[in-house]
C-alpha cells in the first residue's frame, strides 16, 4: 500500500504545477540544509538558467492551459468548468497519464472530449488517429457532435453489416491518412478487433466506461489488446457497485500500478473502511485524485432548472387482481414454505407479477379477440393506463412534451396502439430500432417547432447518451432494479441547456411487489448518496437474497385476495398529483432520517425490526399492525391465506365417483428384470436374424429361471392387454436355455455382422448417400473415416438389401431420396443452363431472358445476363458458388458505379439466380413443346404428300391434247433417252428402267385413246 501511495504521490506532483514547484523548492531547501557550505559554481548557475529559459520557450511554444474557449471549437463557446476539464485532460497528457472524466450526466463530457482531440491535432501535431468507442445508440450523436463543434477534424464511422464493414476496412480503415478520428460501437470493436489491433492509436476513448467494469468481459479483454499512447474513460456513474469494478477501471488506465486486484481488494475492504473511516477514506482520495475528475450539476451549473420527481400510486383493475391472484396461488406452496427455495424461480415470479402491474395484455389470451380492437378496453383494463389517460391530455393542453420510459418492449407496443387511437404524434426507440431510424427520430423530435408530443423509449436502449432536452416531462412507467438506470433516463431531458423545470412522474401500483422494488431502489440510492458524498465506497453487501424476494412477493398478497373488484380511483388528476406529491415527500423524509448505519442494516425482512425504530418500514407492517408478530408462526414466515374456493357443480357423475372412490393413483407396470449381459448388437450392423432369435430365447430362459410373471401393458385396451400378457407368459413358460450347438451357432453368427461399424460410421454413410446419391460409392467412401471403398461397397450392398429391418427405415430412406432429388435438380438446372447458353455465340452480350410478368423492378437485364452467364461459367454445383459470384460482381468493371448490384449479399444473389433459372426452364420447356409440334406437323405433311402423288400424275396424263400426243410422245421418248444416258448405280438402274417403261406405256395408251375420240367426233 505504501508503495502504491508513493507512486501516486509522484503522479500527483506531475499533474499539479503548484505541487511540482513546491516540490522543487523543497528539494532545493533540503539540499541547502544538507550542505550549507555548498555553493553553486558559475558554470552550474549558467546551466540552470539555460535550462529554465529552454523550459520557458517550450511552454511558450506549446499551450498547456486555456483561459477561454479554444479557437478551433466552432458554433458555440465552452463553459468555464468545461475549459477547466480540458486543462485537466491536457495536464494528464503532458504527464503521460490516463484518466476518468466522470462529470455528472448532462455537463458536456462529449464536448470536453472533442476539445481534447482538437488540441491534439492543432497544438501537438500528432499524426496518430484516435478511437472513440460508444454505445450503439449514441454512435450518430458522436459523429454529429464532432462535425458541429470541431469541423476541422476528419471523422469516420465503423458500422453496418459484414459486407459494409469489409468494404469500409478495405477502403477507409486501412488508410489512416484519410481520417483522424474513428467512431465505433462496443459490438464492432469485438467483431473487428483484428483490424483495429493493427493500428497504433493516439487516444482510445471509451464512452459510458462502466461497460468495462467487469475485467473478464469480452469488451474489457478486447480494448486491452488495442495499442494506444493514451486512454480516456468517460462515465457519469464511475462507482456503481463494488471495489473490484473500481480496480478494473484503474487497471485499464494504469496497469503498472494497479496490477493485482487481490491486493487492492484487501487494502480497501469495505469492513476495514468502516472500522478505520478517516485513514482508509484519505487513502482512497489519494488514489483517485490524479485519475478522476467529477463535478455535479448543482456545483457548476447554477442556472439549470430543478428536477421534481413525483410518485403516482395507482390501483389494480379487476382483471389485474384476477391475474395477480392466480400467479400467487400457482406458487403458494413455495411462498408459504420454510424450506429451501429456488432463487431463479422467485425472480420469475417477481417478473410475472411486474407484468401484471404493467398491463394484463402482456399475457397471451387475456386481450379480447379476435378481432382485436384498439379502444377504451386498452385503458380500462390497467390502472397505469387509466392514470396515463388522465395525465397526458393535461400535459398536452399545457404545452409539455413527454418522454415515457419502460423496461418492456411489449409495453411500447401497447403505448403505440394507444397513441394511434388517441391521435398523439410520437416516436419510438428500443434495442431493435435501426441506427438510421433512431437518428432520424431523435432529430425529428428535437427539431424546432416539432409536433411530436411523446417519445417512448426502453430504459436500457434509450437511457444512454441521447439528448432529448426539448422534452420537459419524464414518465417512468415501470422502475428499474438499478436506480442509476432510471436516473440516466431522467437525464435525457434534465441536462445542460434545459430551460424549463423537468417534471418526473414515476408510476407505482399500490400494494404490490412494485412498492417494495421502488423502496429498495430508493434505499440503495440514498445509501450510495451518503457514502459517495463522504468519499467512501460501498461493497455489494446489499444484494437481493431469497428472503427479500419472498417478502417482496408476499407484500400486499392478502390485500389483493381480499376483493375481486377494481380499486382504480375515480379521483381527478389534480387530486392524484397532490396525493402523489404528499406520499413522495413522506418517503423522502423517512429516508433522510435514516443514518448510514441504519441504511446498511436495512433489510426488507429484518428479524428485529418489530422492536426497532425501523419497524414501520417492514413489509409486514400493514394498516398499523405488525402482522408478522401477530401471526406468531414458528417458522417466522408470513402465511399467505388463499381466498375461499367457489365450488362448481360436477355433472359428470361417473367420472366424479370414479375419481372420488379411487384410492391412490394408477399402479405402475413393473419393469421386467434385466437378463445377464448380452452382446451389444444394433440394427444397422445387419447381423443375421437368427442371432436375434437366440438372444430372445436367452432372455425368456432367464425370466423363467427367476419365476418372472408377465404383466399387463396398461396403455393397451383391457382385452388386448390380457391377450398379450398370456402370450408373453406362454413364451416364458416354454423357454429353454440354449443348447451347446445353438451356443456355438450364436458365436458364429456374432462374427457375420458389421461389428466394426459404429453409430458414427452409420450416420456418415447415410449423410454421404444423401449428399452424393446411392450410386456414387467412391465419393461416399471418402466421407467415412477409417473405411475403405471395398468395405463401403460391401456395407452398401447389404444396406440396400436389408434396410427394411432398420427401426427408422422410412426416415432414413426419406432423407436419402430427398438428397437424390436435390442432385437430380442440380443436374436438370445444369442442363437447362447448357441449353440456354448453346443458343448464343456470345452469351455475355446476346443472351436474352423471357421475363413475362416476372421481371421485377430492382434488377436490370444487363445484371441478370451477367449473373446467369457467370453462374454457368463457375459451375452451378460448385461449393460456395454464390460467394464467388458476389466477388465477381464486385470486380466487374461495368458495375463499378452500380451500388445496388454491388451491395447484394450472397443469399440475395442466390435468390435472384433461382428466379432466373425458373424462367429459363420455363422458356426451354416452351421451346421443346414448340419443336415437338413442328416435327409432328412435318411428319403429317410428309404423309399427306405421299398419298396425293398418283392422283396428280393421272390428272396430268388425261389433260394432254390429242394433237400434240405424238409430239409429246416423241419429246417424252427423246427426253427419256437423254435422261437415261448418264451412268447410274447398278442397284438403281433396274428400278429406273422399269419406271421409264411404265411411263412410256401410259403415255402410249393416252395418245391412242385421244385419237379414237377424235375419229368418233368426225
Features:
1018 residues, alpha/beta, Rossmann fold, N-(1-d-carboxylethyl)-l-norvaline Dehydrogenase, domain 2, 6-stranded parallel β-sheet, 15 strands, 56% helix, disordered C terminus, chromatin regulator, SNF2_N, ATP-dependent chromatin remodeler activity
Question: Care to describe what's here?
Answer:
Residues 387-538 form the Helicase C-terminal domain. It is found in: Nucleus. Residues 721-734, 926-937 have a biased composition (Basic and acidic residues). One of its GO terms (cellular component) is ISWI-type complex. Belongs to the SNF2/RAD54 helicase family. ISWI subfamily. The protein is α/β, with parallel strands linked by helices and 1018 residues long. Among the domains are: 80-299, Tandem AAA-ATPase domain (Rossmann fold), CATH 3.40.50; 307-315 and 376-545 and 572-600, Rossmann fold; 683-745, ISWI, HAND domain (N-(1-d-carboxylethyl)-l-norvaline Dehydrogenase, domain 2); 759-819, Arc Repressor Mutant, subunit A; 839-937, Arc Repressor Mutant, subunit A (Orthogonal Bundle). The chain is 56% helix and 7% strand. It has 45 helices and 15 strands. The strands form three sheets. The chain has a seven-stranded parallel β-sheet, with helices on both faces. Strands 8-13-12-9-11-10 form a six-stranded parallel β-sheet, sandwiched between helices. β3 (155-158), α7 (162-173) and β4 (181-185) form a beta-alpha-beta unit. α40 (861-874) crosses α41 (881-891). It starts with a helix and ends with a helix. Mean pLDDT is 73; it is low at 17-38, 52-61, 273-277, 531-542, 595-624, 630-650, 659-669 and 958-1018.
Amino acid at each position: 500500500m505504501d508503495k502504491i501511495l508513493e507512486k501516486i504521490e509522484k503522479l500527483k506532483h506531475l499533474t499539479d504545477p503548484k505541487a511540482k514547484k513546491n516540490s522543487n523548492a523543497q528539494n532545493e531547501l533540503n539540499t541547502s540544509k544538507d550542505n550549507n557550505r555548498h555553493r553553486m559554481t558559475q558554470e552550474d548557475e549558467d546551466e540552470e538558467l539555460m535550462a529554465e529559459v529552454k523550459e520557458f520557450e517550450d511552454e511558450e511554444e506549446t499551450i498547456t492551459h486555456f483561459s477561454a474557449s479554444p479557437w478551433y471549437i466552432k458554433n458555440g463557446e465552452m463553459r468555464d468548468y468545461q475549459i477547466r476539464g480540458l486543462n485537466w485532460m491536457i495536464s494528464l497528457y503532458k504527464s503521460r497519464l490516463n484518466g476518468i472524466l466522470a462529470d455528472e450526466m448532462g455537463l458536456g463530457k462529449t464536448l470536453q472530449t472533442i476539445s481534447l482531440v482538437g488540441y491534439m491535432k492543432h497544438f501537438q501535431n500528432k499524426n496518430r488517429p484516435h478511437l472513440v468507442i460508444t454505445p450503439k445508440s449514441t454512435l450518430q450523436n458522436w459523429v454529429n457532435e464532432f462535425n458541429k463543434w470541431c469541423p476541422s477534424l476528419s471523422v469516420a464511422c465503423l458500422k453496418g453489416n459484414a459486407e459494409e464493414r469489409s468494404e469500409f476496412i478495405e477502403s477507409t480503415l486501412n488508410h489512416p491518412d484519410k481520417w483522424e478520428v474513428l467512431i465505433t460501437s462496443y459490438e464492432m470493436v469485438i467483431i473487428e478487433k483484428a483490424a483495429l489491433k493493427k493500428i497504433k492509436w493516439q487516444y482510445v476513448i471509451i464512452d459510458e466506461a462502466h461497460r468495462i467494469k467487469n475485467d473478464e468481459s469480452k469488451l474489457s479483454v478486447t480494448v486491452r489488446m488495442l495499442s494506444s499512447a493514451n486512454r480516456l474513460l468517460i462515465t457519469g456513474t464511475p462507482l456503481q457497485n463494488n471495489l473490484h469494478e473500481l480496480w478494473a477501471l484503474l487497471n485499464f488506465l494504469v496497469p503498472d500500478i494497479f496490477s493485482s486486484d487481490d491486493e487492492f481488494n484487501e487494502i480497501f475492504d469495505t469492513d476495514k473502511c468502516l472500522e478505520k473511516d478517516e485513514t482508509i477514506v484519505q487513502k482512497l482520495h489519494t488514489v483517485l485524485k490524479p485519475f478522476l475528475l467529477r463535478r455535479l450539476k448543482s456545483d457548476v451549473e447554477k442556472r439549470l432548472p430543478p428536477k421534481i420527481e413525483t410518485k403516482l400510486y395507482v390501483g389494480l383493475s379487476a382483471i389485474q387482481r384476477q391475474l395477480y391472484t392466480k400467479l400467487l396461488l400457482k406458487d403458494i406452496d413455495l411462498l408459504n414454505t420454510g424450506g429451501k427455495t429456488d432463487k431463479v424461480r422467485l425472480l420469475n415470479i417477481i417478473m410475472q407479477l411486474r407484468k401484471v402491474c404493467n398491463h394484463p395484455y402482456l399475457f397471451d389470451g387475456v386481450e379480447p379477440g379476435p378481432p382485436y380492437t384498439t379502444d377504451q378496453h386498452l385503458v380500462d383494463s390497467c390502472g397505469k393506463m387509466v392514470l396515463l389517460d388522465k395525465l397526458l391530455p393535461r400535459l398536452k393542453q399545457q404545452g409539455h412534451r413527454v418522454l415515457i420510459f419502460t423496461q418492456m418492449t411489449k409495453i411500447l407496443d401497447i403505448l403505440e396502439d394507444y397513441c394511434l387511437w388517441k391521435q398523439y404524434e410520437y416516436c419510438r426507440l428500443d434495442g431493435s430500432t435501426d441506427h438510421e431510424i433512431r437518428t432520424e427520430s431523435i432529430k425529428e423530435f428535437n427539431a424546432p417547432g416539432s409536433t411530436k408530443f411523446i417519445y417512448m423509449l426502453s430504459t436500457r436502449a434509450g437511457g444512454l447518451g441521447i439528448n432529448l432536452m426539448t422534452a420537459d416531462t419524464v414518465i417512468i412507467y415501470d422502475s428499474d432494479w438499478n436506480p442509476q438506470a432510471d436516473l440516466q433516463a431522467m437525464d435525457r431531458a434534465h441536462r445542460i441547456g434545459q430551460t424549463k423545470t423537468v417534471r418526473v412522474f414515476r408510476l407505482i401500483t399500490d400494494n404490490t411487489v412494485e412498492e417494495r422494488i421502488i423502496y429498495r431502489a430508493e434505499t440503495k440510492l440514498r445509501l450510495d448518496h451518503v457514502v459517495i458524498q463522504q468519499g467512501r465506497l460501498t461493497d455489494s453487501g446489499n444484494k437481493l437474497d431469497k428472503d427479500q424476494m419472498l417478502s417482496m412477493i408476499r407484500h400486499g398478497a392478502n390485500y389483493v385476495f381480499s376483493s375481486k373488484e377494481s380499486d382504480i380511483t375515480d379521483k381527478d388528476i389534480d387530486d392524484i398529483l397532490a396525493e402523489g406529491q404528499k406520499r413522495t415527500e413522506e418517503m423522502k423524509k423517512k429516508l433522510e432520517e435514516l443514518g448510514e448505519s441504519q441504511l446498511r442494516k436495512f433489510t426488507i425482512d429484518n428479524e428485529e425490526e418489530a422492536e426497532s425504530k425501523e419497524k414501520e418500514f417492514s413489509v409486514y407492517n400493514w394498516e398499523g399492525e405488525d402482522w408478522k408478530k401477530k401471526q406468531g408462526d414458528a417458522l417466522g414466515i408470513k402465511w399467505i391465506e388463499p381466498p375461499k374456493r367457489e365450488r362448481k357443480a360436477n355433472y359428470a357423475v361417473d367420472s366424479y365417483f370414479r375419481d372420488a372412490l379411487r384410492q391412490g393413483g394408477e399402479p405402475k407396470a413393473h419393469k421386467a428384470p434385466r437378463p445377464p449381459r448380452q452382446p451389444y448388437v444394433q440394427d444397422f450392423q445387419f447381423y443375421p436374424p437368427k442371432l436375434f432369435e437366440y438372444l430372445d430365447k436367452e432372455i425368456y430362459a432367464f425370466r423363467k429361471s427367476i419365476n418372472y410373471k408377465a404383466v399387463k401393458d396398461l396403455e393397451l385396451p383391457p382385452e388386448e392387454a390380457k391377450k398379450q400378457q398370456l402370450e408373453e407368459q406362454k413364451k416364458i413358460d416354454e423357454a429353454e436355455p440354449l443348447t451347446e450347438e445353438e451356443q456355438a451357432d450364436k458365436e458364429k453368427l456374432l462374427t457375420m455382422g458389421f461389428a466394426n461399424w459404429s453409430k458414427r460410421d452409420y450416420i456418415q454413410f447415410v449423410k454421404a448417400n444423401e449428399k452424393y446419391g446411392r450410386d456414387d460409392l467412391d465419393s461416399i467412401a471418402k466421407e467415412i473415416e477409417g473405411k475403405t471403398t471395398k468395405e463401403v461397397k460391401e456395407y452398401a450392398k447389404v444396406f440396400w438389401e436389408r434396410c427394411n429391418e432398420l427401426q427408422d427405415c422410412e426416415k432414413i430412406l426419406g432423407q436419402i431420396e430427398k438428397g437424390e432429388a436435390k442432385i437430380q435438380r442440380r443436374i436438370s438446372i445444369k442442363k437447362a443452363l447448357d441449353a440456354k447458353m448453346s443458343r448464343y455465340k456470345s452469351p455475355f452480350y446476346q443472351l436474352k431472358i423471357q421475363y413475362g410478368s416476372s421481371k421485377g423492378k430492382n434488377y436490370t437485364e444487363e445484371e441478370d445476363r451477367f449473373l446467369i452467364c457467370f453462374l454457368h461459367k463457375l459451375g452451378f454445383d460448385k461449393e460456395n458458388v454464390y460467394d464467388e459470384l458476389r466477388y465477381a460482381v464486385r470486380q466487374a468493371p461495368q458495375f463499378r458505379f452500380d451500388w445496388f448490384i454491388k451491395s447484394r449479399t450472397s443469399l440475395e444473389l442466390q435468390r435472384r439466380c433461382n428466379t432466373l433459372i425458373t424462367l429459363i426452364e420455363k422458356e426451354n420447356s416452351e421451346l421443346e413443346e414448340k419443336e415437338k409440334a413442328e416435327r409432328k406437323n412435318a411428319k403429317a405433311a410428309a404423309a399427306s404428300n405421299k398419298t396425293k402423288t398418283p392422283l396428280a400424275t393421272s390428272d396430268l396424263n388425261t389433260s394432254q391434247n390429242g394433237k400434240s400426243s405424238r409430239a409429246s410422245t416423241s419429246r417424252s421418248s427423246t427426253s427419256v433417252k437423254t435422261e437415261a444416258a448418264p451412268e447410274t448405280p447398278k442397284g438403281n438402274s433396274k428400278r429406273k428402267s422399269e419406271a421409264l417403261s411404265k411411263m412410256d406405256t401410259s403415255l402410249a395408251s393416252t395418245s391412242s385413246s385421244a385419237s379414237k375420240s377424235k375419229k368418233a367426233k368426225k
